[in-house]
Amino acid sequence: MGRFIEGCERRQALLLADCVDDYVGAENAVRVIDVFVDELDLATLGFEGAAATARPGYHPATLLKLYLYGYMNQVQSSRRLEREAGRHVEVMWLTGKLAPDFKTIADFRRDNGEAVRAACKQFVVLCREIGLIVGGTVAADGSRFKAVNTRDKNYTPGAIRLRLAQVEASIERYLDKLDTADRQEAGVAEMRTARLNERIEALRRQMRTLQAMARQVEVAPDRQISLTDPDARAMATNGKGTGLVGYNVQAAVDTDSHIVVAHEVTNLGHDRTQLANMGRQAKDATGVEHLTILADRGYFSGAEVLACEEAGVTPICPKPLTSGAKAEGRFGKPDFFYDAPSDIYRCPAGETLTKRTTTIENGLVLNRYWSSYCRSCALKPGCTTGNERRVTRWEHEHVVEAMQDRLERRPDAMRIRRRTVEHVFGTIKDWMGRSHFKMRRLPNVGTEMSLHVLAYNMKRAIALLGAPGLIAAMRG
């Protein structure tokens, strides 16, 4: 057996290190957590003193360090953190061998949401001050995360209609079986009839419950109700039949350092109204005068692009092709050239489309252009099926056209966006074990996401500077 590496004898007396500090190396991430929390002004950030039942309270710094350790090591459960505090030498070093009970740990996260989010922002400020965030470009994206709410306990008009149809089909099937049972022998028929009647009655109770829920859904603000987590919402995903009930997490990531500079948790199932919001948050976080934000076509909205420009943020976001004409083989809007000085369009046949009407739709001022020569045009079959081809132009369409021009001059923009921000979501979801958030309600979920982001940013900063270098920068 000499060819194998052998372990020590379990009963052998050992000369252990003199202090716990000797077990924690200089490169250990817990030393970064310790210095970062000690450098924070916890009272200014809004942390409250945590108290355990029937004994003095724990210092907020102790519990914040414990949570940061947990989220950096994929231990988000308060019960698991309680166990780690009593058996892991790194946690003992970090907390001074204190072992709070799980309720104290959980209550701290629940009661200090705003303070945790402030601490997350403070680390971004620190990264900016020590030179990790110097660029003026961020990549934005949104990702769906599961909530503590199954799809069976989420109700929408469509889901209720589908479930009612399923219940009705089940009742019809049991009624057919009941007719069959009546034709059998008396003893067997009586037993089967009783059992089938019980199932039919249970289905009818379920139908009454669904009908009552349908009335509640109709009067709900967004016509949706979730029972376990009232703030969670049903959200579609790319795969067919893979929708989930959860939250839409927004993030803006610096393209140079890959540090998350801004994030927000929403319960909207789309990203169309988030471009300007994330741009403003990222601009404030990075402290730059001019910021460029890269986003996918799911963020496109003319109003959002204009809001970005007004906030000093330059957006680069592809415009989705929504015209049915191009799909049917006819000329699309890009085939019509706009002459800004003359405020006219030139069609592929060379005719002039002049402005004829101005309307307001969904708060947007829209101008419509058409020509009087469409009916006699030889290209009309490939242009329009109506009497004339009408082109609609938003009053601020120039900001969208300028953005599309920027995108054409930066053909790698979307590739940079993907490799910058999508990795962040994949990493955090892996840390979560592809599971759901531990907490309920939007503010609490926001707190949990801030802990994930803070842990991610710390690991990223350590990867860039090393633990000793980051500690020196924080103390300097």
Proportion of helical residues: 40-55%
CATH topology of the largest domain: Nucleotidyltransferase, domain 5
* CATH architecture descriptor name of the largest domain: 2-Layer Sandwich
What does the radius of gyration come to?
Answer: 30 Å
Can you give the mean pLDDT?
A: 88
Number of helices: 16
Q: What's the total number of strands?
A: 13
Structural class designation: alpha+beta
The best one-word shape is: flat
Characterise this structure:
This protein is of the alpha+beta class and 476 residues long. The protein folds into four domains: 92 residues, no CATH class; 130 residues, 2-Layer Sandwich (Nucleotidyltransferase, domain 5); 67 residues; 73 residues, no CATH class. Helices cover 47% and strands 15% of the residues. The chain is built from 16 helices and 13 strands. Strands 1, 4, 5, 6, 7 and 8 form a six-stranded mixed sheet that branches. The longest helix has 34 residues. The two termini are 53 Å apart. One of its GO terms (molecular function) is transposase activity. Keywords: Coiled coil. This is Transposase. One of its GO terms (biological process) is DNA transposition.
Summarize this entry quickly.
The chain has 476 residues and is an alpha+beta fold.
Keywords:
alpha+beta; six-stranded mixed beta sheet; Nucleotidyltransferase, domain 5; five-stranded antiparallel beta sheet; 476 residues
Write the layout of secondary structure elements.
Elements lengths: L28 H11 L2 H4 L14 H13 L5 H10 L1 H7 L6 H10 L1 H17 L7 E10 L7 E2 L1 H26 L3 H34 L5 E2 L6 E3 L8 E11 L5 E7 L8 H12 L4 E4 L7 H9 L2 E4 L7 H4 L9 E3 L4 E3 L5 E10 L2 E7 L20 E4 L2 H13 L3 H19 L10 H24 L1 H9 L1
Parallel strand pairs: 1-7, 7-8
Antiparallel strand pairs: 1-5, 2-3, 4-5, 5-6, 9-10, 10-11, 11-12, 12-13
